[in-house]
Amino acid sequence: MSNQDNFEIDTQVAAEEAVDLNIPEKCPSCGRENTERRKRCAYCCTLTPPRERITLRAMNLSTIVLFIAALVYFVIAVTLSPQYTPVSGLGESMNFQHVRILAKVRYISEFKDKYQKRSTIQLELEDSKSGGGDDYEGRIKLKAEGEVARELKEKGLMPARGDVVDVSATLFAGKGYRTLSLGTAELLKVVDKASEAAVVETDVKSLIEKPESFKNKKVKIKEAVIKAKRGKLVLEVSGPDDAAGTLVIFGVDPSGYKEGQKISASGLFVYYERGGYWELKITEDESDSIVVLN
Amino acid sequence: METSLVIYSIIASLIGVFIAMLASAIPGLHIYNVIALTMLLAFAAADIFAALHPIVLTGFMLGMVVGFSMLFTVSSQYFQPNDESFRSIMLPHERFLLEGRAHEAVMLGALGSLIAIFIITLFFPLIPSFFATVRLLVQPHGYWLVGMVMFFILMTEWPKDHGVGKTGWQKFWDGWVQLLMGYFTFIVAGILGMFVFYRTIVPVENAFQSLMPLFVGLFAVPSQIMTFMTKVKVPKQHICESVESAPHDVMRGTASGFLAGLFAALVPGMTPGPALLCTGHLTVTSGERQFLIGGGVGRVLYYVGALMLFFMPGVFMRRGGAAINISLFFVPETPEQFFLISGIIALTGAVSFLLIGWFSKACAYLVEKIDYNWFSALGCVILIILTIQITHWQGFVLLSVATALGLVPNMWHSRRLNLLAVLMVPVSLNMSGAGPAVARFFGFY
């Protein structure tokens, strides 16, 4: 067989292969003529058979997966139930962790640094399901400092006492201390507003006789008489008829009041475990908790 | 999380992609420059921005970063050609452009970017504990890892060519000039980096952008100047419907880009360029297609992947300019935010990819109609104005010095990679604890 014959056979095979491989007449990469339907473009050396190439249409279609993934993520973001950590579970081992808690605001206080410039808002929180009282494990302090404190007030995000709040914050916990630090104001959200209706109006007698029915509730005693002043924070009161005994009001400076004075008092009714008695607890910021009636 | 907040964040992220696309039309402009400008606007119009929820603003920034990381190479592909005299330092991008295949080069890079978005959005959320562990492992070893990369860069600068000349001295000089200039660039860039890290002249209120004049001067402006000097006719570009990409090209390119992107995302002071140099050797990457795909994967993993680690619960790693800027107004804390961010990355990644084809066709049309020098001139002017606006005249002084240094690799055909010593040297020295002593030696501290 001559060389000429070999060439003809090769050409024929190549032509058949070109048809099989569906090689186009123009290079799909550079667009130049490929009339001989070579597997590699004579100009840019790229492979011309479609099976060696990825179409842009296929690439574009693959983005559907990303659109679906995006949709799934958005749905999760909207519907994800927050994983709340109980306040009592915030321990040393979780130091520096970002935690999310659902808690009730017990007290709110605000103070400034020694230069009176940088303010700090401090909230005492307790587990929303906690029974309150003196369950210290179920309480924690949350600090919002400087800019965050300012934003809380300016954006109207400050909770009120008794509000149930959803907080995402950084935990600082060591031996004998644990505090939460709020990173941005938006991470403190009120989820259940404490209404004024939650304040129960009652009298000293009812509180002494049926303490369990008022446990951890905000109560208002319409009328009571100061019987004694103890230390720097305690008043002892009885009902107007002095029949049922005395009740302790804790958290009030007694120097501003006189024995025998009639007052109206509102505060949190709790059981003081260490002392073994029930008391009406009032905080410093509740300046209107005691109203003198005579 | 409220549905309205998710919707606002999505809209903001899509606006971010749109702005990124506009910014990408200017070759040389970096997304961090645009973010810096956005931050300045945010500070100037604090009342307007304060009304926005931080996560909405974060969505906007994220859209810009994702969009830009996928689109910003397109304009450089079309508007920054090099002529034959720069062949030795040419990347495949220029070769593709001169062969009329710029669109194919763009789409190969885009394929890499798309793979990276798939990895980030479908794979990363499954392994947060992996990243937390790797972070802990890498943290104490960062300084010597970066040091080894620097050593590798210097080693691979070794003469690749024989000397040409009439006399022995001419041959000697011709053979060694490339190496010497490479080392000279590395050393001077390192000293310049130490100066900026320890005694920056950028005003303190804009010090968070003190690296900007350096990067603009070292990389962006010299590229524009070299484009002005280039006398080349860009041929008509063919808009291909498919790209040549064998499975092994995709696999190998993805492997090198993935490792490089992760390396750059996890180790401070590392960027995709040097990381790709190392991982390219590691994965025995060869050929233009693997290079382009790997570049796309590495680039997006570095810019977007590193940013995602900032939002990942249990990791919260602040790496890269975007994360640093976002952390000025937003602290990520909850899993819902992470899922929202993942969704935004998937959405903006898909939208950006679909835009790449159109954007590339528009650039191919423009490069035929308008002289590419006009784009370079526009880019150069915008970059200089931005630098002066953000960092004042002191920044302009730094930019001028950096530009002079940035021209050295272009003039003597050494690698521009050496210029990254401006970041790697100070970061590595500072992590090792030797930074202050070295700075004191140079009188910077």
From TrEMBL, chain A:
<protein>
    <submittedName>
        <fullName>Uncharacterized protein</fullName>
    </submittedName>
</protein>
TrEMBL record, chain B:
<dbReference type="Pfam" id="PF01970">
    <property type="entry name" value="TctA"/>
</dbReference>
<feature type="transmembrane region" description="Helical">
    <location>
        <begin position="105"/>
        <end position="127"/>
    </location>
</feature>
<keyword id="KW-0812">Transmembrane</keyword>
<feature type="transmembrane region" description="Helical">
    <location>
        <begin position="179"/>
        <end position="198"/>
    </location>
</feature>
<keyword id="KW-1133">Transmembrane helix</keyword>
<protein>
    <recommendedName>
        <fullName>DUF112 domain-containing protein</fullName>
    </recommendedName>
</protein>
<feature type="transmembrane region" description="Helical">
    <location>
        <begin position="300"/>
        <end position="318"/>
    </location>
</feature>
<feature type="transmembrane region" description="Helical">
    <location>
        <begin position="396"/>
        <end position="412"/>
    </location>
</feature>
<keyword id="KW-0472">Membrane</keyword>
<dbReference type="InterPro" id="IPR002823">
    <property type="entry name" value="DUF112_TM"/>
</dbReference>
<feature type="transmembrane region" description="Helical">
    <location>
        <begin position="142"/>
        <end position="158"/>
    </location>
</feature>
<feature type="transmembrane region" description="Helical">
    <location>
        <begin position="58"/>
        <end position="79"/>
    </location>
</feature>
<feature type="transmembrane region" description="Helical">
    <location>
        <begin position="6"/>
        <end position="24"/>
    </location>
</feature>
<feature type="transmembrane region" description="Helical">
    <location>
        <begin position="31"/>
        <end position="52"/>
    </location>
</feature>
<feature type="transmembrane region" description="Helical">
    <location>
        <begin position="419"/>
        <end position="442"/>
    </location>
</feature>
<feature type="transmembrane region" description="Helical">
    <location>
        <begin position="210"/>
        <end position="229"/>
    </location>
</feature>
<feature type="transmembrane region" description="Helical">
    <location>
        <begin position="338"/>
        <end position="360"/>
    </location>
</feature>
<feature type="domain" description="DUF112">
    <location>
        <begin position="11"/>
        <end position="419"/>
    </location>
</feature>
<feature type="transmembrane region" description="Helical">
    <location>
        <begin position="372"/>
        <end position="390"/>
    </location>
</feature>
